[in-house]
Each structure stands twice: as structure tokens, then as C-alpha cells.
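To make this tangible, we now present a fold written out as C-alpha cells:
***
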Amino acid sequence: MKGTHLGEFEELVLLTVGILYDDAYGLAITDEIEKRTGRKVTVSSVHKALMRMEQKGFLHSHMGGASEERGGRKKRLFTITNSGKEALREARTMRNELWSAIPKVVWDVKMI
């Protein structure tokens, strides 16, 4: 498996695949990230992240059925693998540990 750490954008994409569960494909992932974060992202950046994470073993993809709304084209649907779930758990654990390590005084001091 190539690289086991998640970048910030990869983490967003992987979390969004989990949110969309059985309807996680490029455009839906892009729309969901924009809706939830207010962040403008391109479909191509999402596709690149999806391909990277599939190579890392964090995602699995398969072709879904064709739909009229897509002109008869099929969607490439993504699901999180067990390795992807573990990568998300590790990222969450690391972030929680870092947040917990910030001394209380940091939050009590008012910024000028």
C-alpha cells in the first residue's frame, strides 16, 4: 500500500465518501464538500484525490448503473475500505490528542 497518511483534502474527501455511503461519486462528493464546508472545490481535484486514495487502498470503486440524467453514462461509485476506515480513525485520534495537548491558558488568553 502506498503512503498511509491522509492530507487535509484527502480526509475531507474520504469523510464525504462515508457521508454519501452508497451514492459517492465524483460530482456528488464535490457538491457535498462545497455544501458542508463552504469551500469551492473542482471535480478534477476530487477525482485526483479519489484516485490517490484508491491507490493507497483507502477506497474501492465500481461502476454503477447508467442513468437518464447522465445521458446513459455510468457513475464510478466509491466505498471506504477497512484501511480507509483505519486511516480516518488514526487521523481523528491524532487530531484529538493534539487538541487535548493545548494548555487551557491558550484558550483563556484574549487576542489583541
